[in-house]
C-alpha cells in the first residue's frame, strides 16, 4: 500500500502541504528528487524502472502525487508514473486534470488515485478502468489504496487488509487535523512523525516489499516549493531537504 496525505488551504501561508509514504518492491530502482528541465521545471524523484515519478511539484506551483488503487489489471498497462510526469508539465491543477482525462481516453493503466493541487484547486483523479474526478474541500485529506477520507471499498479477497487500511487512514486524518495556532512547519513535523509511527500502520516492513521512502512537500503562498525526502522507511530514516528548486 501507499499513503498520501494533503493539507489543502488549511494554512494561509502554505496552500499545499503533502506528506506521503511510498511502498514498493525493495528491488525496484529509484533516484532521489532532483530538478528536471522539460516543458516546465520540475522537482521530483524518478522511478528507475519505468522513468516516471510518483510525487513532485513544478515551477507553476502545481503538485502531483500518486498512489495505487487496488483493482484488477490485465498486465498491458502503461506506467502510471509517466502520467504523473506529464501532469507536472501543466500550468495549473485544472490543466493537469484535463490532460489526464484526455490521456485516459487513449491509454490504459493499473488502478490509481492521482492528486493534482495548486493554490486554486485540489483534484483527485480516481481510475479503475474509467476516471472519476473528485474536487476536495479545504482541509486535510488522506488517500490510500482502498479509498480516501471516509469513503473506502473492500476488494474481493482483500477485505481484512482493506479494513485495516481504512482504519489507518481514519486515525491519520484525525491526528493531522490542524491545531489552533499551528504553522505549516508544525503540521509537517507531525506528519513526518506519524508516517514513521507504527501505531498508525502506514510504515510497512515486509518480505521483499515495504516502505521505500517518505516525502514532505510544501508550496507556499508565493508559489515557492520545498521538498524533504527520506530515502528509506521514515521510522529509521531522517528527512533531508532537497537542494533543487523549481
Task: Tell me briefly what this model is.
This protein is α+β, with helices and mostly antiparallel strands and 246 residues long. It has helices at residues 80-87, 93-106, 159-175, 184-195, and strands spanning 3-8, 16-25, 30-37, 41-47, 55-58, 63-68, 112-117, 122-127, 131-135, 139-144, 147-148, 151-152, 209-219, 225-230, 240-241. It has one domain (3-241): Penicillin V Acylase, Chain A (4-Layer Sandwich).
Element pattern in H and E: EEEEEEHHEEEEEEHHEEE
Q: How does the helix and strand content classify structurally?
A: alpha+beta
Largest sheet: 8 strands, antiparallel
CATH class: Alpha Beta
Mean pLDDT: 95
- The helix count comes to 4
Q: Name the overall outline.
A: globular
Identify the strand order in the major beta sheet: 12-11-10-1-2-13-14-15
How many structurally independent domains? 1
Helix content: 10-25%
Contiguous runs where pLDDT drops below 50 for at least 5 residues: none
Radius of gyration: 16 Å
The percentage of residues in β strands lies in: 35-45%
Amino acid at each position: 500500500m501507499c499513503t498520501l496525505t494533503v493539507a489543502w488551504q488549511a494554512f494561509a501561508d502554505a496552500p499545499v502541504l503533502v506528506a506521503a509514504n511510498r511502498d514498493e518492491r525493495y528491488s525496484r530502482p529509484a533516484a532521489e528528487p532532483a530538478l528536471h528541465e522539460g516543458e516546465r521545471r520540475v522537482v521530483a524523484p524518478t522511478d528507475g524502472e519505468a522513468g516516471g515519478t510518483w510525487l513532485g511539484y513544478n515551477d507553476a506551483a502545481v503538485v502531483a502525487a500518486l498512489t495505487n488503487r487496488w483493482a484488477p489489471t490485465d498486465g498491458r498497462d502503461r506506467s502510471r508514473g509517466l502520467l504523473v510526469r506529464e501532469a507536472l508539465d501543466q500550468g495549473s491543477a485544472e490543466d493537469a486534470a484535463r490532460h489526464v482525462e484526455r490521456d485516459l481516453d487513449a491509454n490504459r493503466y493499473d488502478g490509481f488515485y492521482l492528486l493534482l493541487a495548486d493554490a486554486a484547486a485540489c483534484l483527485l483523479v480516481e481510475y479503475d478502468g474509467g476516471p472519476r474526478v473528485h474536487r476536495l474541500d479545504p482541509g486535510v485529506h488522506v488517500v490510500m489504496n482502498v479509498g480516501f477520507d471516509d469513503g473506502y471499498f473492500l476488494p474481493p479477497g482483500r477485505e481484512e487488509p482493506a479494513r485495516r487500511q481504512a482504519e489507518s487512514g481514519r486515525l491519520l486524518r484525525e491526528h493531522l487535523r490542524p491545531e489552533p495556532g499551528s504553522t505549516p512547519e508544525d503540521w509537517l513535523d507531525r506528519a513526518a512523525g506519524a508516517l514513521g509511527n507504527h501505531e498508525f500502520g502506514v510504515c510497512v516492513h515486509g518480505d521483499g516489499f515495504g516502505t521505500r521512502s517518505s516525502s514532505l512537500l510544501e508550496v507556499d503562498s508565493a508559489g515557492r516549493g520545498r521538498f524533504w525526502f527520506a530515502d528509506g522507511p521514515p521510522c529509521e530514516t531522517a528527512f533531508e531537504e532537497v537542494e533543487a528548486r523549481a
